[in-house]
# Entry
Amino acid sequence: MCYRDTLPVVLKKVTFTIKPREKIGIVGRTGSGKSSLGVTLFRLVEICNGSITIDGVKIRDIGLDDLRKKLSIIPQEPVLFVGTVRTNLDPYNQYTDLQIWDALERVHMKESIMQLNEKLNFEITENGENFSVGEKQLLCVARALLQHSKILLLDEATAAIDTDTDMLIHKTIQEAFSDCTMLIVAHRLHTVLNCDRIMVLDQGEIAEFDSPSVLLSNDNSRFHAMLSAVENRIIASPSSS
# Structure
């Protein structure tokens, strides 16, 4: 894969197959091509070589609206819009209040919203400033959950969140999207240790693609080296402070 002139070439030759309901962790250094997979999957930029096929259908052969209705993304920066809680979760008024409350309960936000004066009609300010970053991210998870998509992309979804909230969000995602195919672009390596397979990207190519146990059992694997480096930094940090 490569981009047209609008973006620099990031992905070179990337060939892989993902089974239904598989959880794939995607790791690599900055600029390795991690987020570029999402860009091409959602067709934000058309690829000039190769193809992406879902259930035997090439995504370039269907309309963008049809494609994106079947995909969900939980981005690195949680996005909420000016409006009510309800319009943020269900902008096209497709779901009942019962369905929305169910989604909020599954992401551990029902109690928080119930305590608001207007509940689902509570007005969200610009950029969701009247919610914490963790709460905004959980609301984004609820929004994705309502869409019932079978493919979910998490683009470093908890990179800017504290560790405890990070763990809660990933636990919530694992439970709520257990029947989905998930592509998890990881900033914190521990978040992909329970994935079925891990894809290590390097300069736009797949350097490794195997189960966590296989990669970690190989002292020469890149993922093993990356995780060891993180653990060494954690051990060294108390003395450095």
